[in-house]
Backbone:
């Protein structure tokens, strides 16, 4: 029937997908899918159950396009089928908390040349975890790969020592492997301060962590709503990781992004499941917090060298880029320029959409949504990725100053949409952007390449 789904596998059309006649509008990246009458008949109350090869093909198309999510059942594989790898360098207190949460699972602690290896070993022995001590420091990627060689179960969880991920949650994540093409899955990773009274940057990190990728489940790939997964907490098929060669050991940052993109390039499916949560310890100092943001930024150049334009900071067409720029500079001529760009987008979409009674209205709606997304991306470029250029431009150009003010207003709106439960923290948010952007430019200068700084057009 299908080498991907077993009979009875179920998928549910996402609540944010719009239905117009025989069209499904939604997904990530945004798309319009036209269903035949036979395909529509297979979807009952928004749910599709796999009975034959046709069901399997339709289910795969909807899930991979982020138009539907898998319906998961049971509590996952037995504990004896899952091994946890924990790379560590010192931090025995965090290791103790990590292992306590994993009670009942087989754990391998890989000591990446700790300064006090005896303390790490004592904690591992207390929790009946196997300890592998490395004679030289390999970094997180190398430590994980070393642990992977010792795994003899079909599934493996990769959990950092400063993360608390309970055993039941990891087993529930492994339910995604009912889809036989899923190689890797990750939960929502939220930050949590250990301080009795969290400081301002810790409160910000709890609300807007770099590792928290939103509340929207996703089939992960470049260009989708979720384009990567953090290695802080992952569950994977052992055989697929080994075939992929594991993590790139020469990478000290961005190795998780690289792994996800290599898996996707090879035809594997990677899933993000925010219904499950792992907790990451917030950084305990301002320098540690900003230093981590800076480090993340430096990885952009290496990823661009390995994957080309895949990781571009924005994906935007020339027409929408001009229209969005006009909106940001807020000049008297901005409205007609943006309107012309919007009209061009409407005409393009009208030609490409299937002929239905709602085609004209859909074209207007989608073009307007595209312009809004373009404005959002350009605002982020000015405030985060290109801020060194923007800082120079502020001294010389009134248009740049106006664009920055508009970008700040857009950022407030975007923050309210993405994190409605969080208070807007302008100082923390700007420091976050400054640190990441500085790292991005330092990485580009080291690599002598601006590839990580340039947007790409859709489909490129």
Residues:
């Amino acid at each position: 029937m299908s080498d991907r789904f077993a009979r009875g596998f179920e998928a549910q059309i996402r609540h944010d997908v719009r239905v117009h006649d025989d069209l499904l509008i939604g997904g990530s990246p945004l798309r319009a899918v036209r269903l035949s009458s036979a395909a529509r008949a297979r979807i009952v109350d928004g749910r599709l159950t796999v009975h034959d090869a046709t069901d399997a093909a339709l289910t795969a198309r909807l899930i991979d396009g982020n138009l539907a999510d898998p319906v998961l059942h049971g509590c996952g594989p037995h504990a004896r089928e899952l091994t946890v790898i924990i790379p560590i360098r010192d931090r025995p207190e965090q290791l103790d908390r990590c292992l306590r949460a994993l009670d009942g699972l087989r754990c391998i602690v890989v000591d990446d040349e700790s300064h006090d290896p005896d303390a790490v070993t004592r904690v591992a022995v207390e929790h009946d975890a196997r300890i592998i001590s490395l004679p030289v420091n390999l970094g997180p990627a190398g430590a994980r790969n070393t642990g992977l060689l010792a795994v003899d179960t079909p599934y493996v969880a990769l959990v950092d020592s400063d993360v608390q991920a309970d055993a039941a949650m990891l087993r529930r994540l492994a339910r995604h492997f009912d889809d036989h093409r899923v190689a890797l899955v990750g939960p929502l990773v939220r930050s949590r301060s250990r301080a009795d009274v969290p400081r301002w940057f810790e409160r910000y990190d709890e609300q807007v962590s770099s590792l928290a990728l939103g509340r929207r489940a996703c089939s992960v790939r470049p260009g989708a709503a979720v384009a990567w997964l953090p290695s802080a907490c992952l569950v994977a098929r052992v055989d697929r990781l080994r075939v992929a060669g594991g993590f790139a050991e020469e990478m000290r940052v961005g190795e998780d992004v690289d792994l996800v993109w290599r898996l996707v390039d090879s035809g594997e499916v990677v899933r993000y499941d925010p219904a499950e949560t792992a907790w990451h310890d917030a950084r305990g100092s301002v320098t540690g917090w900003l230093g981590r943001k800076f480090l993340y930024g430096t990885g952009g150049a290496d990823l661009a060298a390995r994957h080309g334009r895949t990781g571009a900071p924005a994906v935007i067409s020339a027409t929408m880029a001009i229209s969005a720029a006009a909106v940001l500079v807020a000049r008297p001529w901005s409205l007609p320029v943006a309107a012309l760009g919007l009209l061009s987008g409407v005409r393009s979409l009208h030609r490409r959409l299937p002929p239905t009674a709602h085609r004209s209205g859909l074209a207007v709606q989608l073009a307007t949504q595209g312009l809004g997304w373009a404005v959002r991306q350009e605002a982020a470029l000015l405030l985060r990725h290109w801020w060194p250029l923007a800082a120079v431009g502020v001294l010389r150009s009134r248009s740049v100053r106006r664009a920055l003010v508009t970008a700040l207003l857009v950022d407030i709106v975007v923050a309210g949409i993405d994190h409605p439960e969080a208070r807007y923290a302008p100082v923390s948010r700007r420091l976050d952007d400054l640190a990441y952007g500085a790292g991005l430019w330092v990485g580009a200068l080291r690599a002598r390449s601006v590839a990580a700084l340039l947007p790409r057009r859709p489909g490129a």
The first strand starts at residue 10 and ends at 13.
